[in-house]
Amino acid sequence: MIRIAAVGDVHVDKDVLGRYRPALEQLPGVADALLIAGDLTRHGTVEEAKCMAIEFGELGVPVVVVLGNHDHQSDQQDALSDVLRDAGMTVLEGDATVLEINGHRLGIAGAKGFGGGFAGACASSFGEREMKNFVGTTEAIAERLGAALRGLDCDALVALTHYAPVPETLVGEPLEIYPFLGSYLLGQAIDSAPTALALHGHAHHGSERGRTPGGVPVRNVAHPVIKQAYNVYQLLSEDVDAGLATV
Description:
Strand content: 15-25%
Oligomer: single chain
Low-confidence stretches: none
Shape: globular
C-alpha cells in the first residue's frame, strides 16, 4: 500500500508561514509522499517561493508539485521552480518522476494544465488565431501529460494537475467559468494510461470527488475544498479514500 498526502492552492506568502507546518510535521507518520496541485504562491514571486520552501521543505517525505496559474502571475515561474527544487521538491511540467515506496514504484506525471471546457461546452480550434492559440495550449499540455503517463513503468500511477480534468469536481463553481477551470483533454490524457488516481486544485468552490469517463477517480484537493492541510489517499488498496486523515 502507498499513502499519498495531497493539497493544492496553499497560496503561501509571508503571512502564511506557520499555518500548515504543525500538520506537515506529522506527515512521516501518516503518508509516504506529499503531492501539491499548484497555486503554491499568491502572486508567483521568488520571495513567495522562498516562503513556500520554508513552509513545505524538509518534511521527511518526498514532495512533488506542479505550478498553478498564480505561480505564473509575475512571469518568474522558472526562478520560482528553481527555488523549490533547491529546497528538495520535485517540480513537474509535462514530465514525470518515480518514487520507490514500501517496495513499490509510484509514478507521478504532472502538468499545470489549462482551460477549454468540457464535452458539449468546450472551445474549439477554429476561427481567430487567438482562439486557436488558446485551444492549442491545452492540446499541447494534454499531449505532454498523456505521454508522460504512458511512459512510466510503475506499480501505481498518479496524474497531478492544477486545472481540472472533469466537470464533476467543479460543481459549486459558476457554470460560466468552467471553461477557465479545466479541460476534457486532460481527462482524455489521464484515461490514455492505467492511471490509479488524478489530483487537481484550482476550483476553490468546487467539489472533492469525480471520475474520468474511463473510470479514474479524480479528487479536487484545493485547500478551500478539503478544508485541512492535506488529505491522505491510498493506492494499491481497494479504496483510495480509505486513508483519509483529519489533519
